[in-house]
Amino acid sequence: MPETPVSPEAVAPRRGRGRRPADEVRADVLRTVGGILLQEGLADLTFERIARESGVSKATLYKWWPSVGVLALDGYFHAVEDALAFPDTGDIRADLTTQLHHFIELMTTTPAGRLLSELIGQSQIDQDLATEYRRLYSSARRQLAAARLRAAQDAGQIRPNVDVQVIVDQLWGAVYNRLLVPDEPVTAAFGDALIGNLLDGVASS
Amino acid sequence: MPETPVSPEAVAPRRGRGRRPADEVRADVLRTVGGILLQEGLADLTFERIARESGVSKATLYKWWPSVGVLALDGYFHAVEDALAFPDTGDIRADLTTQLHHFIELMTTTPAGRLLSELIGQSQIDQDLATEYRRLYSSARRQLAAARLRAAQDAGQIRPNVDVQVIVDQLWGAVYNRLLVPDEPVTAAFGDALIGNLLDGVASS
User: Fold this and answer.
1) What are phi and psi of B196, to 5 degrees?
2) What is the mean pLDDT of each run of 10 residues along chain A (205 residues)?
3) Hey, what CATH class is B83-200 in?
């Protein structure tokens, strides 16, 4: 990822003239963090490095993000927002297939899978991280998935009495299960099987 | 849990007369460990305590189990084997409901849920534990579930072209997903919804 040029205004923010808008500075930081995470993972992510590469002072980083873990979650969420968007072509089966393939590709061909596994793992013994993980990542991802699934209910493609949050666990949750305990492989075919089983049912008719 | 009486033969195993069979000693140890885990969880589990409560020498424990984590996994697997058995009444829907209710009850009303979450969490950064977790727990549990699901395929209740390992992720894996990232609650009703969604399908017919 190319380094964002150092902006003196951002390094030493001043009230008044010349200061870049905070939203723009935040977006720079999140882009820097997301780039590091998707290329390298969490290991070498420090406030020092992020300050250097984003051109934003450590004081500003600390003010906005209380820990590097929280900043990582925020950066990761924004970094994958486009790659993990939920398309709506009007065909829920096709759209779930597209999205789940993207998700599985991201999890298995970038450091994202390991990053999320480690964050979920660490959050089992770190209550603050667990809270931030849900606040900054998982609950927001759940809401995006649920919105697409509810649109499919409105379109008459998913039964109206189904709790869409349960579907989230049976698609993406099932993938996380294999990422965290890799007894079985995470592949595009696995994604297809998840969708087929769930939409069509596994009971013999 | 009542303490197993100390057996001098087990404390100082000798070749020849008087020694208890190794299987019996192992079973005593696993019973002791399982009792501690289901009542208290992992926090106070040490080789010292297990030796004292099971009446088996620490040397013997070290010989059979290289670490307390491995012994915990072995003890836990045996402790829950009966509670998490897969009944076969011939009705796969009823049997999955029975088993999943037992599983959810165990996960939410005993230290088992926290224990497994912590073991899965720790195994994200501890490759030896990850290997042992799969070897001593998860892959064996998967096989038991798959055997019951294959019997349902043989009985014509589940479509023959379904990969039963995917079903495992969409039932038990979905529960683990909520245990590890508790955005949504783990309840008996959640278990019922998992089974209903998967057997009947969520697509509008």
Assistant:
1) -60, -50
2) 45 57 94 93 91 95 92 92 95 98 96 92 92 94 97 98 98 98 98 98 94
3) mainly alpha
Min Cα–Cα distance to chain B from A54, Å: 29
Q: Which class in CATH covers the domain with range A81-200?
A: mainly alpha
For CATH 1.10.357.10, list the domain ranges present in chain B: 8-77, 83-200
Q: How far apart are CA A185 and CA A196, in angstroms?
A: 17
Q: Which of residues 171-200 of B touch A (CB under 8 A)?
A: 172-178, 180-184, 190, 193-194, 197-200
Query: Which residues are bridge partners to A203 per DSSP?
Result: B158
| ipTM value > 0.95 | no
Contact A157 B181 (CB under 8 A): no
Chain B partners within 8 Å of A162 (Cβ): 193, 197, 202
Cβ(B4)–Cβ(B31) below 8 Å: yes
Task: Return the CATH class of domain B8-77.
Answer: mainly alpha
Which chain B residues contact residue A193 at CB under 8 A? 162-163, 166
* A177 closest CA partner among B104, B129, B38, B167: B167
